[in-house]
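Homework help board

Subject: predicted structure for assignment chain

Our instructor gave us this sequence and asked us to write out the predicted structure in token form, then describe one feature. I got the tokens but I'm not sure how to describe them. Can anyone check?
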Amino acid sequence: MWHCFHKRRTRPRCVYLPLSRHFSRATGNTRRPLRVDQSGEITVNGMYRGQVTVLGHDPRVGSLIQETRNQDKRHLEVMNHKLQLQHQVRPTILSDAVKAAGFALRAAMALMSKEAAMACTEAVEAVIGEHYDEEVITEIRRDEWQHLDTAIEHHAQRAPAHTLVGTAVGGGCKIAIELYKRF
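My token output:
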């Protein structure tokens, strides 16, 4: 598995290491990060489902959003099968709540405007990217930074109340990460 070491939005430095080298036994120190990563992917999948529901047929961004959603579905599969099942890490007890909250947030933003949906994506992916910067993460981490760049390219910063959206959504993501660690 490729492990990439990044600093914010710079070209990754990648090496190939077997997954088992870093996660051979889930101890207290690795269970929490695995649960947080898996919980984040559950949340993001709910978010993209909401965004696809509203903007999926938009000729400008529909296929792009669906492609991003498909990438995040693969990320969740990695977390579910290779990490959670292989290392017997229980998922967060907040799974159903975060799926619904993620869907509602992203659908509401998409109903406001395409730019508002992209501003939400920008805020979420920035927090996820920073979170993954603190860990040894594979192509998933690279994809998350790519999602951030895509949101910016699609005018996230033109959204009404862009700074407010970024602050509120980013803060919510940080709170969610802390909750995932505990529950």
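Reply (TA_rk): Your tokens look well-formed. For the description, you could write something like this. The helical segments are 19-23, 28-55, 62-87, 95-112, 114-133, 139-153, 162-182. That's the kind of observation they're looking for.
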